[in-house]
Each structure stands twice: as structure tokens, then as C-alpha cells.
């Protein structure tokens, strides 16, 4: 044993004698490492260049010293300045490395990279750092530096990356004046990260100039005051600007809208006085203007202009009035947080909410009613709005953010000795709700980064912290389930470069902040591994818990909303209070109804039908209602009636006539509907109401009613088949929005009538689906057939059966695929349509849809949803062409949707796939012609 030790010593002597490292560097390194504890074991060897982990040499000279994340403790010796050929010094992630940064650092004239991220260095940043002519990257973030930013840093003419974030720096941002340098001279610097310090004073106007090429300027979380300088508009390269969490006041300069490359703008938590004008900032993805001192204003016009927004946050923005519904249709929009404002009236989310939208927060506003989009099933927070004061709404998810129970995440698949840490991204362009959506791309990039290295990695959790920085947990595991060596981690996981090669437009500037790694060679190994793994597991469980809880919460909410059949609610004008009410059907007594209708007087009667008499009445709040009183004996029994009423009262859609209430008393079965002022489609087509519906109006009526029916078929629970679709059951409101009426009624009536009408078939002659008639098998496709007849009515302006002629047959016979403009239907078209034009935009496609609906076999007919999509496309062609092509890009998909769902039409119909295709091309010409 003794001999062996002796041999080792001699071996060391021997090696020493032939050291490949320059003696000046050996001596400097020894001096540096003597002040450190817990250096890598390899540092006991005599030849740094050859043997020390984290030391790299060239021609016997040390050019790189980068023992990052080695848990080295101690302070940095001033002899570091003697490593005169050093080009890269990276001591990052040694959180117990403390004391001042020696001024001798200024002797390292070859230094290109100085990184001391997440250590415990303190004292001032020495002026001498500014005398390193070759310095390109300076990252001193996450230390305890105090004092001012040395103006000398402005001399670093090769600097591309300046990161002084998360220290305790104070004083002002230095700019050049009177021969003294300043940060404005850093004309190669892409990144100015000065966030999370104690900087104060104004942001100097001279800081920004057209000489800067900065893409990221982070000044958030400081004590800056005064106004935002007009000169900000000169830095046209800017992609991310965070000035949030300061005390900035005054008015945001209009020049800000010159920043047309800006993706992320955060001005939250300042004292800015006016809602800025951001019109034209088309590249903006993420915007936060919360908690300023804005004057009261309406939603700014640019709410309807910034098409690329992912995140819009204006909490406590002193905003009132209505919200433009176009906002919710932005294609990329993920998150809208406009809580703590005074938005009032109706929150209308429109029917085309963007695909990616997942969070809408209007907590503490003044909405008295809400119209939700049927296409939106994600989170909506309305707590603290008057619309929530109704006891029935109070308990719903919308008005009551639930606390979800914690669940322990499933930790299987986690490796036992991960090299782990946090990826920190300081200005992500997406929202907290869309982390799952952006994770795959992060994974792809990590995979690329780690390719060729025998590791696996996992991203077990992620969250946005309170400062809106994205934190992604990253665990890298050896594929052999062993500890990594220092050499491996130093070479493989050199992520400290801050250049993780993540897409900066998506993630903003990111860096990796690894946890201290136990390389597995501690004395009491079992115990330490136990603690390390246990500790890491505990950490993971805690981190996982919170993200998992969030995720669960979101999922739970989603589930609840999905199960909730409400699409719309709002005030129904309860007589007994100002509190707006959820639109559930209310109960009317027979006396109420008598009062409303002057005792069912003839003067109030507005019509009659198979169902009974219809009366008009006015509720105490002025709302007009249509009261349908059934003939005695035509209705079913009490329990069924109530069940149906409950079901119908939950069906709300802007294209369906709303059930306001009902009466069930003494054999009375009465339904109270909203009153629709402009009468039926039949009346309007006949010209009886003195107004001609033009082509576009007819298209939009078709679209409205198709959407109403699609809702009944696909979103109402249980599914409702109308059974009596016809033009006289389509009503037009004051804006000529079409609303489908009397759905469900036929069903209500049917059971009672079954005794009298032996056949179960119910419907109206001329609209009746022949297949249903023959098989008595009712499906939603029967409504589709009837709707096809309505579409033909829209073209011809006539009822389906006139003088014994059936419009479906007439159209089929007249059809001439060869005829270019009207496909041979010129003589059947309602003359009113052709008064002012020789073309009808999308006519062929429209006829095509109608004929598909009228296919003999119900299986060949499209669904109502497909029909709605196709009509929507036709209608869009009537609009002026959009600037962007995102709406036109939806076109082929919707078209093929029809082609796929409804199998190819028979050849005697013209509407084959190719027919529609050429029709589409032709419609392009039509557009040009009709645009003249
Ligand atoms: C906002 O800016 C745009 C374009 O610069 C301008 O057209 C518009 O009038 C401005 N709006 C207001 C309210 O000042
Ligand atoms: C919304 O509030 C404003 C004043 O804050 C008021 O003028 C307006 O009439 C309100 N609108 C509705 C629909 O209540």
C-alpha cells in the first residue's frame, strides 16, 4: 500500500516536470483555486491544460476557464488577472462563489466572454470591465452587485450581449456626455438586459437612437420614473420591450408605433396616463398595459387592428363601453385579460372565435349580459360583473373560480440522476395558457441541441412566474442511468451561453439555470444520494403540484363548460329587481299572461298556426314578447312539458328565437318567446313588407339560419331536430339577422298528436324530406333537406309549391351545366335579385349547396355545419377582398369539408367536385365584375 502511494507521488513529480501548461498560468490557476473549496477532484493534478476539468488551453496557454455548475465555494482571487491569454471566463451557477469581482479582471485583454450568471458576487462592477476591448458577451446577471452601472461599459465596442439583470444596481442608466462614455455607444449590442435592479431616474432620451441595433431591451422591475422618451421610436430593430414595473408616467409617445418589428410590449405597472395608440403595430404578439393610471376611455380602435396578437392584457385599464367582437376572431389569439375595467353592456364574443383562444378574463367589469360564441368552450371569467348577481349564475364556473383539489402528479418515467434546472425565458410571446401549445417546439429544439449525446431529457413542468417570465423545468438523464461526469456536463450542457437556440421570436431571451449537481462521488454516498434524489423529488413534486393543479383546474373548468349547454345568457328583465338575470325560462302565471295580452284580446293577436294562437305582449321592462297559446288538448302532459321546457330554455343562440318563459297552469300550455320585429322570411321574400332582400342579405339570412340549425343539431344537448324547417319559421330581427323559430315545438306537439295523426311524420308539404316520409326514420338530415328547399326559395323568391309546381323539380329540370352565368336558371331567379346587377356572386356554389342538401339519400346530404361553412365562404366572396389571406386560406378546407362529408353528388346534379371547383374559379371573375 505504501509503495503504491509512493509510486503515485513520484508519478506526479514526473508529470509535473513535463507540464504542458505555461508556468505563469499554472501559478495563477493555483492561486485562484487555492481560494476555492470543492473544486473538481481533477484539479489536484499538476497540469491544468492536460488534466483539469473546465480548463482549455491553446499552445500551453489557458484560454478558457469555465467550471460552471461545479458548486465551487469561495471568492475570486485577483490573480485571475494573470491569466493573460484568457478568452472565456465562465463561473456561472456556482451559487456559493462570493465576494467582489477583482479589478484585475481588466488585465484580461483577450477576454471575449465573461459569464458569472447566478453566483453570489457582490460589491460594485469594476470600471475595469469596460476596458476589455474584445469583450462580446458580458453576463453578470443574478448576482448581488450593487452601485451604478459603470459608464465605462459603453467603451465595449464589440459587445453584443449585455446582461446585468437581477442584481441590486442603482443610479441612472449612463449615457455618453462630456467625453464620458455611456450605454448608448453600444451600437453592436443586441441585448440590453437591465431588468430586476434598482435603477432610478429618467430613461435618458439619449439612450435610444437610430444607431442602436438592439432587439431586446429589458428595463422592467426597476425604479425608473419620468416619461418614455420619444426617441424610443428610433430603435426600429426592437422585438421585445419590457418597461413594466417601474414608475414611468406621462404619455406613451406616438413614435412607439414606429416599432413595427416589436413582438412583445410590456408597459404594465407604471403610472402612464393615457391609453397609447398602437395602431399599425402589426407584429405585436404579446401586449400588457395593465395597472397604469390611464384616463377613462373606450376600447381603443387598435383592439380591432392588431391581427397577430396572442396575448392582450389590460387589467385595470379604466376602460368602459363595449368590446368589439372582432377581437375574439383574431386567428392566433390565446388570452384576453381585461379584468378590473368598466366594460358594460353586452359582452359579445361573436361566432368566429379564434381557434387558439383559451382564456377570457373579464372579472370585475360591468357587463349586464353576455353572448358567448358557440365555438368557444374554454375559460371565461365573469366574476364581479352584474350579470353574475343572479343566484343561478352565481354558482357556475363563469362567476365562481373554483379551487381544485391538489393531486400528486404521476412521476413515473423520471430518471434517477438527472442533470436538471430551469430554462428561464424572459419575454415569451405566448400566454400562460398556451404553454402546452408551445412546448413541442421547445422539445424539438432541445432535441436538436442534444442530438448525438447519449441522453434523454424530460420537461416535467412549466409555469409563468409572477413577473411573467416563463420557467420550464428541464431534466437531462444519462441513458445509462448513471451520474454524469464533470467533463460530460461541461461539454454537453454548455447552455450558459444564453444561446439556447430556442426561437427567440417565440420564447424571447432564455437561459438555463441548472441546479447544483451531485456528481456522485461524495463520501456518504448512499445518504447523499437519498437526500439529493429525495430533495429533488420533493422539489419536483412541489413544482409539479402547482403546474398540475393549474392544469387540472383548467381541465376541470373545460369539462364543466363543455357539459354546459348554455351558449348565451343575459338579462331577461325580471320585474322584481335591477339585477340582470340569466336567460333561463321564467314562469308566468295565467294572470301574468292575461295582463300582458289584455286578456288574450284580438288586438294583441298576431297570428295563428297549428299550435294555436300567437299574441304580442310587452313585459314590464319593455321587452316585446310573442306568446304562443296552445289549443287545449294539443299538448302533452305536465311532466313531459316541463322536461321539454327545461331543455328548450337552455338552448340559446343568436340565430335561434329565445324562449323567454312559459305558463303551465290549469291545462294552459303557453310558451313566451322573444318578439322578432321584422316578420318571417316568407313575408319578406314575397315583398309584402315593402322591402326587397338583395343577394347579400339573402346569403346572410341563409348563413344565420344554417348556423342556428347547426347549433340545434350539433351543440344542443340533447340534439334537437327541428322537423319543420321552412321560410315561415325563419324570423328576421331589426337588423335582419335571421332567427330560427319553433324548434322543438313539433316535438312537443307530436306526442299529443300521435293519437290523432296515425303517421308519425310531421312537417310541412313542400319541405318534407322524401326519405323521412317513406321510412319514417327521422334524422337531422331531414332538416337539411327542408333547408335546401329554403335555399331555393331564397333564389326564386317563391314558396316551394306554386300552382302545383314543385321548385325542387323545376330547378333540377332547368339546370344547364353548360350555361355560364346562371346555369340555366335565369328564368327561375327572383326578378328582384336581378334589378341592379347581371351577376350574383357565388351563385353557382349556392345552387350547388342547395342541391346537395336536396339529395334523395340522406347520407349524401351535408351536415348543417358544412352547409353553414360553405355559405360563409360564399358570403365572404361578396365582401371586399381581405388584405391578408388568412380568411381565404380557410376556403379550400371548408370546401373540401363539404365534398368529403357529403359524398359526390349524382351526375345529373351539376355540383360534382369538379363543378364546384370550376365554379370557384369563375366566382373570382364574378367578383371582379360585380365590384365595378
Ligand atoms: C392612431 O394612430 C393612427 C395611425 O398612426 C391614426 O390614423 C389614428 O388617427 C390614431 N388614433 C387616435 C385615436 O389618435
Ligand atoms: C356604458 O357606460 C357608459 C358610461 O360609462 C354609458 O354612457 C353607456 O350608456 C353604457 N352603455 C351601456 C350599454 O350600458
Entry keywords:
single chain, 932 residues, alpha/beta, Alpha-Beta Plaits, Phosphorylase Kinase, domain 1, Transferase(Phosphotransferase), domain 1, 15-stranded mixed beta sheet, 45 strands, 19% strand, elongated, disordered C terminus, binds 2-acetamido-2-deoxy-beta-D-glucopyranose
Provide a quick synopsis of the model:
The chain has 932 residues and is of the alpha/beta class. It contains 20 helices and 45 strands.
Strand proportion, as a percent range, falls in 15-25%
Topology-level CATH name of the domain at 681-930: Transferase(Phosphotransferase), domain 1
The unreliable regions are: 1-18, 402-414, 522-583, 748-759, 882-932
Mean pLDDT: 77
Shape: elongated
Q: Helical residue percent?
A: 25-40%
- Fourth-tier CATH superfamily name of the domain at 681-930: Transferase(Phosphotransferase) domain 1
Compute the number of strand runs: 45
Radius of gyration from CA coordinates: 36 Å
Strand order, sheet with most strands: 2-3-5-7-9-11-13-15-17-19-21-23-25-27-29
CATH class of the domain at 681-930: Mainly Alpha
Bound molecules: 2-acetamido-2-deoxy-beta-D-glucopyranose
Note the main sheet: 15 strands, mixed
Amino acid at each position: 500500500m505504501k509503495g503504491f502511494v509512493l509510486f503515485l507521488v513520484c508519478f506526479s513529480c514526473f508529470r509535473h516536470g513535463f507540464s504542458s501548461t505555461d508556468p505563469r498560468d499554472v501559478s495563477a490557476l493555483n492561486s485562484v483555486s487555492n481560494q476555492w473549496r470543492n473544486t473538481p477532484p481533477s484539479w489536484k493534478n499538476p497540469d491544468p491544460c492536460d488534466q483539469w476539468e473546465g480548463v482549455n488551453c491553446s499552445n500551453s496557454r489557458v484560454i478558457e476557464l469555465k467550471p460552471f455548475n461545479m458548486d465551487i465555494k469561495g471568492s475570486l482571487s485577483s490573480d485571475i488577472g494573470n491569466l493573460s491569454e484568457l478568452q472565456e471566463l465562465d463561473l456561472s451557477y456556482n451559487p456559493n462563489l462570493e465576494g467582489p469581482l477583482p479589478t484585475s479582471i481588466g488585465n484580461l485583454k483577450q477576454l471575449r466572454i465573461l459569464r458569472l450568471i447566478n453566483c453570489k458576487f457582490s460589491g460594485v462592477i469594476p470600471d475595469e470591465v469596460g476596458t476589455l476591448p474584445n469583450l462580446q458577451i458580458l453576463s453578470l446577471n443574478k448576482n448581488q452587485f450593487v452601485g451604478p452601472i459603470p459608464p465605462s461599459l459603453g467603451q465595449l465596442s464589440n459587445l453584443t450581449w449585455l446582461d446585468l439583470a437581477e442584481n441590486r444596481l442603482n443610479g441612472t442608466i449612463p449615457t455618453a456626455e462630456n467625453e464620458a462614455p455611456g450605454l448608448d455607444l453600444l451600437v453592436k449590442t443586441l441585448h440590453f438586459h437591465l431588468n430586476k435592479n434598482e435603477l432610478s431616474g429618467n430613461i435618458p432620451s439619449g439612450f435610444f437612437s437610430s444607431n442602436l441595433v438592439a432587439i431586446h431591451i429589458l428595463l422592467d422591475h426597476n425604479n425608473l420614473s419620468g416619461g418614455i422618451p420619444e426617441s424610443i421610436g428610433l430603435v426600429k430593430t426592437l422585438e421585445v420591450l419590457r418597461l413594466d414595473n417601474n414608475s414611468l408616467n406621462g404619455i406613451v409617445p406616438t413614435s412607439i408605433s414606429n416599432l413595427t418589428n416589436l413582438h412583445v410590449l410590456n408597459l404594465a405597472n407604471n403610472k402612464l396616463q393615457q391609453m397609447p395608440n398602437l395602431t399599425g403595430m402589426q407584429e405585436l404578439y404579446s401586449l400588457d398595459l395593465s395597472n397604469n393610471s390611464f384616463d377613462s376611455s373606450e376600447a381603443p380602435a387598435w383592439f380591432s387592428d392588431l391581427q397577430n396578437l396572442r396575448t392582450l392584457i389590460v387589467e385595470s385599464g379604466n376602460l368602459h363601453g363595449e368590446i368589439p367582437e372582432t377581437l375574439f376572431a383574431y386567428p392566433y389569439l390565446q388570452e384576453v385579460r381585461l379584468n378590473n375595467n368598466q366594460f358594460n353592456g353586452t359582452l359579445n364574443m361573436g361566432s368566429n372565435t379564434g381557434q387558439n383562444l383559451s382564456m377570457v378574463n373579464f372579472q370585475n367589469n360591468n357587463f349586464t349580459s353576455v353572448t358567448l360564441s358557440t365555438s368557444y368552450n374554454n375559460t371565461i371569467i365573469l366574476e364581479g360583473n352584474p350579470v353574475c348577481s343572479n343566484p343561478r349564475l352565481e354558482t357556475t364556473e363563469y362567476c365562481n373560480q373554483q379551487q381544485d383539489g391538489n393531486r400528486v402528479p404521476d412521476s413515473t418515467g423520471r430518471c434517477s440522476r438527472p442533470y436538471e434546472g430551469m430554462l428561464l425565458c424572459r419575454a415569451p410571446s405566448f400566454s400562460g395558457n398556451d404553454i402546452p401549445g408551445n412546448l413541442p417546439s421547445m422539445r424539438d429544439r432541445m432535441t436538436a441541441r442534444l442530438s448525438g449525446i447519449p441522453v434523454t431529457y424530460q420537461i416535467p413542468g412549466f409555469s409563468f412566474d409572477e413577473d411573467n417570465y416563463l420557467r420550464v423545468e428541464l431534466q437531462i438523464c444519462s441513458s445509462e442511468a448513471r451520474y454524469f461526469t464533470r467533463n460530460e456536463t461541461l461539454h454537453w450542457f454548455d447552455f450558459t451561453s444564453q444561446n439556447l437556440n430556442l426561437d427567440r421570436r417565440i420564447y424571447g431571451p432564455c437561459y438555463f439555470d441548472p441546479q447544483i449537481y451531485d456528481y456522485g462521488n461524495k463520501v456518504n454516498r448512499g445518504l447523499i444520494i437519498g437526500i439529493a434524489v429525495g430533495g429533488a423529488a420533493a422539489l419536483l413534486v412541489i413544482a409539479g403540484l402547482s403546474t398540475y393543479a393549474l392544469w387540472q383546474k383548467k381541465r376541470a373548468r373545460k369539462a364543466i363548460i363543455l357539459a354546459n349547454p348554455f351558449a348565451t345568457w343575459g338579462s331577461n328583465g325580471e320585474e322584481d329587481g335591477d339585477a340582470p338575470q340569466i336567460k333561463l325560462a321564467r314562469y308566468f302565471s295565467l294572470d301574468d299572461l292575461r295582463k300582458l295580452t289584455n286578456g288574450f284580446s284580438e288586438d294583441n293577436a298576431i297570428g295563428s298556426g297549428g299550435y294555436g294562437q300567437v299574441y304580442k305582449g310587452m313585459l314590464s321592462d319593455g321587452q316585446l314578447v310573442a306568446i304562443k297559446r296552445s289549443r287545449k288538448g294539443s299538448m302533452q302532459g305536465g311532466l313531459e312539458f316541463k322536461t321539454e321546457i327545461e331543455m328548450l330554455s337552455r338552448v340559446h343562440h343568436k340565430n335561434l328565437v329565445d324562449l323567454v318563459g312559459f305558463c303551465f297552469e290549469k291545462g294552459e300550455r303557453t310558451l313566451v318567446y322573444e318578439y322578432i320585429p321584422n316578420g318571417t322570411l316568407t313575408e319578406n321574400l314575397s315583398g309584402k313588407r315593402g322591402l326587397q332582400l338583395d343577394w347579400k342579405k339573402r346569403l346572410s339570412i341563409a348563413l344565420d339560419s344554417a348556423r342556428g340549425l347547426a347549433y340545434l343539431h350539433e351543440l344542443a344537448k340533447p340534439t334537437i331536430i327541428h322537423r319543420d324547417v321552412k321560410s315561415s319559421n325563419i324570423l328576421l330581427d331589426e337588423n335582419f339577422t335571421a332567427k330560427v323559430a319553433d324548434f322543438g315545438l313539433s316535438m312537443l306537439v307530436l306526442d299529443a298528436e300521435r293519437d290523432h295523426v296515425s303517421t308519425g311524420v310531421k312537417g310541412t308539404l313542400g319541405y318534407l324530406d322524401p326519405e323521412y316520409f317513406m321510412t319514417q326514420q327521422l334524422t337531422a338530415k331531414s332538416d337539411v333537406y327542408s333547408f335546401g328547399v329554403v335555399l331555393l326559395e331564397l333564389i326564386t323568391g317563391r314558396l316551394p309549391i306554386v300552382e302545383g309546381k314543385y321548385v325542387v323539380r323545376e330547378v333540377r329540370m332547368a339546370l344547364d351545366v353548360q350555361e355560364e352565368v346562371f346555369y340555366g336558371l335565369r328564368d327561375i331567379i327572383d326578378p328582384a335579385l336581378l334589378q341592379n346587377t347581371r351577376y350574383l356572386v357565388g351563385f353557382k356554389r349556392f345552387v350547388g349547396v342547395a342541391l346537395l342538401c336536396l339529395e334523395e339519400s340522406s347520407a349524401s346530404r351535408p351536415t348543417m355545419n358544412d352547409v353553414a361553412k360553405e355559405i360563409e365562404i360564399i358570403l365572404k366572396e361578396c365582401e371586399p377582398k381581405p388584405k391578408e389571406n388568412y380568411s381565404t386560406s380557410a376556403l379550400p378546407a371548408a370546401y373540401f369539408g363539404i365534398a368529403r362529408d357529403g359524398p359526390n353528388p349524382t351526375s345529373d346534379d351539376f355540383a360534382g367536385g369538379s363543378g364546384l371547383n370550376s365554379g370557384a374559379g369563375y366566382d373570382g371573375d364574378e367578383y371582379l365584375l360585380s365590384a365595378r
